[in-house]
C-alpha cells in the first residue's frame, strides 16, 4: 500500500487505481454521469476557460493555504463531497473518509445515503464531520433525522436540493447495476476478475447497510430492505421553499443548501436563513445539460456577496481550487477522486489525495505571487482566448 501511494502523484492516478480494483459496474457507478455525459466534460471545460496571471518579485517564502469557515480553521480550502453507497466500494469507507478529514483538518460531508451512521461520523470526526440531508416523503422521519444530527453534536447541515427525480444514468442500466440487484453472468465475470474487491464484498455480507435508515425500517430488516425503504422515501419531489423554511426553524446550527445554480435561488435561500451554499451540479450526475457550477459562480457571488460559497463538480487540481477562489468560492469540495482514493487505498489514500491538493494549491500560490489563499482575487485571473 505505502509503495502504491508513493507512486500516486496526482488525483488522476487514483482513478486508474480504482479502475483496476473495482468491477466495471462499481467503477462506472462512480465515474458516470447522466444521459450523454456531456456535463462531465463541461464541468472540466469550465475550469479550462481560465488562465492564471502571476505577479513576481513578491516574498512568497511563507505561504498559507488555510481557510476559516463557520468558526473553524481548516488546513486547506478542500473538503470531501457527500457520496452515497461508499461502503460498497470498500467496507468502512465512510469512516475512513471521516478519519482522513480529521487527520488532514478539512471537512468531511457525510452523505444522506451513506452506509455508516451519522453518529459514527460524529464520534470519529467531531470537529470535521458535516451531514448532508436528503429530505424524504415522510415528515416524521425528516424531523427525527434532524434531531439525531443535532443530538450527535454535528454543527453543519447541508440540504441537497438538486435530486428532484432519480436521474437517467445509462451506464448503470446497461451494467445491470440497478435495483432490484440481480447477479447476471457478466456481473459474475467482473467479480471474478476483481477478486480483492469481491472478497471484501462477500466478507461484509454483500450490500452494506444504510445505517442511518435502519431505525426507520422494520426490526430485523436486511440491507436490501433498508435500501428499498430509502428508495421509496426519496427523492422528495414535493420539496419547496417552505421545506427549507421548515428545516431552518428546526435546525439551530449552520445550514447550507447544495445544488442551487440560479442567482435568484441563491438569494432566496440566503433570505430564508441559509448560512452558506454549495454551488454544485452534482458532478453532472443529475441534469446532463445543466450549466457548470463554476460558470455560475461569479453571478451567485454577486447575488449573495456576504455568503460563504463552496464549489464542487469537476475540480481535480489545486489550480482549479485557486481559479474557483478567484471567482468567489471560499472552499472547493471534491467528489469522485476521493471515492477513487478510498476505494483503491482506504484512509491513507484519502489522506494522500487531500495532501496532494493542498500541496498543489501551495505551489500555485507561490507561482502566482500570492502568499495567502485568502488574498486571491479576480486580479489573478484572465479568460482564455
Ligand atoms: C458515487 C457518488 C455518490 C454521490 N452521492 C451523493 C449524495 O449522496 N448526496 C449528494 O448531495 N451528492 C452526491 N454526489 C454528488 C457529490 O456530492 C458531488 O456533488 C460531486 O461528486 C462533485 O463532482 P466531482 O465528482 O466532479 O468532484 C455523489 C457523487 C458520486 C460520484
Please explain how this structure is put together.
This protein has 385 residues and is α/β, with parallel strands linked by helices. It has one domain (2-383): TIM Barrel (Alpha-Beta Barrel). The protein has helices at 2-6, 11-21, 24-31, 38-48, 86-89, 93-104, 118-124, 139-151, 170-175, 185-193, 195-203, 223-233, 241-250, 263-271, 293-303, 318-326, 336-368; strands at 50-52, 67-69, 72-74, 78-80, 108-110, 129-133, 156-160, 254-258, 276-279, 309-311, 331-334, 381-383. The strands form 3 sheets. The chain has an 8-stranded parallel sheet with strand order 4-11-10-9-8-7-6-5. A two-stranded antiparallel ribbon has the order 1-12. Strands 2-3 form a two-stranded antiparallel sheet. The termini are far apart. The model has no long low-confidence stretch (mean pLDDT 97). The protein binds flavin mononucleotide. Flavin mononucleotide is lined by residues 30, 43, 81-84, 111-113, 132, 160, 258, 280, 282-283, 285, 312-315, 334-336, 339. Residues 30, 43, 81-84, 111-113, 132, 160, 258, 280, 282-283, 285, 312-315, 334-336, 339 line the site of flavin mononucleotide.
Amino acid at each position: 500500500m505505502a509503495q502504491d501511494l508513493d507512486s500516486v502523484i496526482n488525483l488522476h492516478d487514483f482513478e486508474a487505481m480504482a479502475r483496476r480494483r473495482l468491477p466495471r459496474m462499481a467503477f462506472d457507478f462512480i465515474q458516470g454521469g447522466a444521459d450523454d455525459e456531456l456535463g462531465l466534460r463541461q464541468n472540466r471545460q469550465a475550469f479550462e476557460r481560465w488562465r492564471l496571471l502571476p505577479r513576481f518579485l513578491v516574498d512568497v517564502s511563507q505561504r498559507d493555504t488555510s481557510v476559516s469557515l463557520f468558526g473553524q480553521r481548516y488546513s486547506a480550502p478542500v473538503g470531501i463531497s457527500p457520496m452515497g453507497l461508499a461502503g460498497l466500494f470498500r467496507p468502512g469507507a465512510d469512516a475512513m473518509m471521516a478519519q482522513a478529514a480529521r487527520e488532514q483538518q478539512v471537512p468531511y460531508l457525510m452523505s444522506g445515503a451513506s452506509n455508516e451512521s451519522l453518529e459514527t461520523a460524529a464520534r470519529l470526526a467531531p470537529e470535521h464531520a458535516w451531514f448532508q440531508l436528503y429530505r424524504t416523503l415522510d415528515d416524521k422521519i425528516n424531523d427525527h433525522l434532524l434531531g439525531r444530527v443535532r443530538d450527535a453534536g454535528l454543527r453543519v447541515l447541508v440540504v441537497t436540493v438538486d435530486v428532484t427525480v432519480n436521474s437517467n444514468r445509462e451506464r448503470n442500466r446497461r451494467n445491470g447495476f440497478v435495483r432490484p440487484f440481480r447477479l447476471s453472468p457478466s456481473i459474475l465475470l467482473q467479480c471474478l476478475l476483481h477478486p480483492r474487491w469481491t472478497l471484501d464484498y462477500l466478507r461484509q455480507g454483500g450490500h452494506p447497510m444504510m445505517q442511518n435508515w435502519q431505525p426507520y425500517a422494520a426490526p430485523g430488516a436486511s440491507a436490501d430492505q433498508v435500501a428499498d425503504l430509502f428508495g421509496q422515501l426519496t427523492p422528495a419531489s414535493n420539496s419547496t421553499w417552505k421545506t427549507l423554511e421548515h428545516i431552518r426553524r428546526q435546525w439551530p446550527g449552520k445550514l447550507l443548501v447544495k445544488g442551487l445554480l440560479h442567482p435568484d435561488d441563491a438569494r432566496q435561500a440566503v433570505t430564508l436563513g441559509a448560512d452558506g451554499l454549495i454551488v454544485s451540479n452534482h458532478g453532472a450526475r443529475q441534469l446532463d445539460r445543466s450549466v457548470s457550477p463554476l460558470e455560475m459562480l461569479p453571478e451567485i457571488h454577486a447575488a449573495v456577496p456576504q455568503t460563504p460559497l463552496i464549489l464542487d463538480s469537476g475540480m481535480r487540481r489545486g489550480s482549479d481550487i485557486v481559479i474557483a477562489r478567484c471567482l468567489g468560492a471560499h472552499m472547493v469540495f471534491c467528489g469522485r477522486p476521493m471515492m477513487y482514493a478510498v476505494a483503491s487505498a482506504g484512509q491513507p489514500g484519502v489522506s494522500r489525495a487531500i495532501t496532494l491538493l493542498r500541496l498543489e494549491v501551495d505551489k500555485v500560490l507561490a507561482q502566482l505571487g500570492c502568499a495567502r489563499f485568502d488574498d486571491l482575487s479576480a486580479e489573478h485571473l484572465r479568460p482564455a482566448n
